[in-house]
Specification:
2 domains, Rossmann fold, 13 helices, 320 residues, alpha/beta, single chain, six-stranded parallel beta sheet
Length: 320
């Protein structure tokens, strides 16, 4: 049995919860029994530990290793583990030393790791099954923003950017996400009430959030840091072009020459890029669509399944 430890409830809409559910399904399909827990539940007949989030799962890793010193441990590192660097993120090097293998979600994340750790690390891009497109809203040029209200997501940036658009613009941002920071949530609620181009709708079930994404003409990501955002994979699966802050977590997925980047925190640059996409200046929106369509192979579920199967083979972990 594989013990999968995640800091978020497996039925949650947070990234770790979504990843835990998907990986448990893949591992089950590969013939393994999987137990999901938010913490180390104590001694058991485990063949491996898969821990999501190096910092938040550190205690589970330590306790598991103490009870099972010869059982393989795999740690999946998130954006808040890796950026701005592992030391600033509070990751214990001793915990990383206990890992037989580590997982990162996009190739540029390897640059954040010391060479001895990097050698034990595998890149596994998050997959998403095809998401059928939905009819677009006829009353506006809708931009999806799927982000919980946390400072690292820079969640008020889209609202600030659309205030700079010309009066002729039909752009409207639909923001779905839970209020994880009370002060930011208060500001978002006030902005939503006052800004006709920005609607914060709070948390929504995953299927509803994906439906909003699938009807949108654009998806925006404004984070200061990302490990490899699942929402980028979701946008690719829904054939929705992406505009993103120029952070390694997005560059590692979309490529260094992807045309839809703006400097993180630059409200004016984001406003200009949104308007260029709406107006399709010089074919900009068409170019984004074509580039994202060409990247859909990255998020093929068969590819993620193969990568996880290869990792288990390295651990010599037989299905049980």
């Amino acid at each position: 049995m594989i013990l999968l430890v995640t800091p978020e409830l497996p039925d949650s809409a947070y990234g770790n919860g979504v990843t835990a559910r998907r990986w448990a399904g893949i591992l089950g399909g590969l013939g393994h029994q999987v137990r999901i827990s938010r913490r180390y539940p104590g001694r058991g007949n485990y063949g491996a530990l898969l821990a999501l989030h190096a910092r938040k799962s550190a205690e589970a890793v330590r306790r598991f290793h103490a009870d099972h010193p010869h059982v393989p441990i795999v740690i999946a590192m998130t954006g808040t583990d890796l950026y701005p660097d592992t030391a600033a993120a509070g990751v214990d090097p001793g915990v990383l030393a206990l890992a037989t293998r580590l997982i990162v979600l996009q190739p540029l994340a390897l640059d954040q790791l010391a060479p001895p750790v990097r050698e034990r690390t595998r890149v596994i891009v998050q997959s998403v099954p095809d998401i059928p497109r939905q009819p677009v809203r006829p009353d506006c040029f809708e931009v999806a923003f799927l982000a919980h209200l946390r400072p690292v997501k820079d969640p008020l940036r889209p609202a600030a950017a659309v205030r700079r658009l010309p009066a002729t613009s039909r752009i409207r941002v639909t923001h779905l996400g839970e209020a994880r920071d009370l002060q930011v949530a208060t500001m978002a609620a006030a902005e939503s009430a006052d800004n006709p181009r920005y609607d914060w709708l709070g948390p929504r079930p995953r299927d509803e959030a994906l439906a909003v994404l699938a009807r949108s003409r654009l998806m925006v990501l404004t984070s200061w840091h990302e490990g490899g955002a699942n929402v980028v994979s979701e946008a690719l699966a829904a054939r929705v072009p992406v505009v993103s802050s120029a952070v390694p977590g997005s560059i590692g997925l979309l490529g260094e020459d992807y045309p839809g980047y703006f400097p993180a925190g630059d409200t004016g640059a984001l406003a200009e890029m949104l308007y260029s996409a709406e107006q399709d200046h010089d074919g900009f929106h068409r170019m984004l669509r074509e580039r994202c369509a060409a990247l859909r192979w990255l998020i093929d579920p068969a590819r993620e399944r193969e990568a996880l199967a290869g990792l288990l083979a390295e651990l010599a972990l037989a299905a049980v």
